[in-house]
UniProtKB/TrEMBL annotation:
Pfam families xrefs: PIG-L
Gene Ontology MF, one: hydrolase activity, acting on carbon-nitrogen (but not peptide) bonds, in linear amides
UniProt keyword list: Zinc
Gene3D superfamilies for the chain: LmbE-like (3.40.50.10320)
Organism: Zhihengliuella flava
Presence of keyword Zinc: yes
Keyword Zinc: yes
Phylogenetic lineage: Bacteria, Bacillati, Actinomycetota, Actinomycetes, Micrococcales
UniProt protein name: LmbE family N-acetylglucosaminyl deacetylase
Matching InterPro entries: GlcNAc_PI_deacetylase-related (IPR003737), LmbE-like_dom_sf (IPR024078)
Length: 252
């Protein structure tokens, strides 16, 4: 299989990152996002569910959606991400349906990014918690949307009629998937503090903040080693897919 050579940050103009729930992107990609923003890349988020099934305090149920939305906005702004799209689907009920895919296609065509990032559509059997059904649905819906619907003007034709024209996306980056699919590692050592600070914004989700932070550091160190980085370096890992390369021939 041909190994794609992902673009350097300075080669990118705009990136659109999808997460199933508030905090997914901060766990999976906040260090990479911080590196992109430092390089001047316009990074936007799209959260697919409202996060209402999260949290641990029964007293917060009525306000959980508002709390989690604000937590995500606060975390995003720490990293320099100003634009956050909220699709508002119900937490725990996300499916790769045409209703969801149409909304995803609309956002991608509106933003017209160089890279779309999403959760991985394949289940990770080594740590099942990584493969929440909403995570898998996020990855499947975005992957289906990226090809062929985003680039097919006859898919959801009313979108093109409304001015959201089809275009060919170059790169799809998937996170939180099986380790055997990972083919690209980003050194995030210098961005650890920002990643941890972003995760700390999601206080409704962390009954033990110290344990969470220890886990994140351990995982980043393991990914750094798996990616062949120097001793002590930390990494986030992705499955990078080149959707439209120079030699791609695709029909719908």
């Amino acid at each position: 299989m041909r190994s794609p050579a992902p673009p350097a940050p300075e080669e990118l103009r705009r990136v659109l990152c999808f997460g199933a729930h508030p905090d997914d992107l901060d766990f999976g990609a906040a260090g990479t996002v911080a590196a992109w923003r430092r390089a001047g890349v316009d990074v936007q988020y799209c959260l697919m569910t409202d996060g209402d099934a999260g949290g641990f305090d029964p007293e917060h149920r009525a306000e959980m959606v508002a709390r989690r939305r604000q937590e995500q906005l606060d975390a995003a702004r720490l990293l320099g991400v100003e634009q956050v799209h909220f699709l508002g689907f119900k937490d725990g009920y996300l499916e790769p349906s045409h209703e969801v895919m149409e909304r995803v296609v609309a956002v991608i065509r509106q933003v017209r990014p160089d890279v779309v990032m999403a959760m991985h559509p394949e289940r990770d059997w080594t740590r099942l918690q990584r493969s929440h059904p909403d995570h898998l649905a996020c990855g499947e819906a975005v992957t289906r949307a990226v090809y062929p619907a985003v680039e097919n003007p006859y898919a959801y034709p009313h979108l093109a009629e409304a001015g959201l024209e089809a275009f060919k996306l170059r790169w799809l980056w998937l996170y939180a998937g099986p380790a055997e699919r990972e083919n690209h590692w980003v050194d995030v050592t210098e961005h650890l503090d920002l990643k941890v600070r972003a995760l700390r914004q999601h206080l409704t989700q962390h009954p033990d903040v110290g344990r969470m932070e220890d886990y994140v550091r351990t995982q980043l160190a393991a990914k750094g080693a798996a990616g062949g980085l120097a001793d002590g370096r930390l990494a986030e890992a992705f499955h990078v897919v080149e959707v439209n390369a120079a030699d791609t021939i695709a029909g719908f």
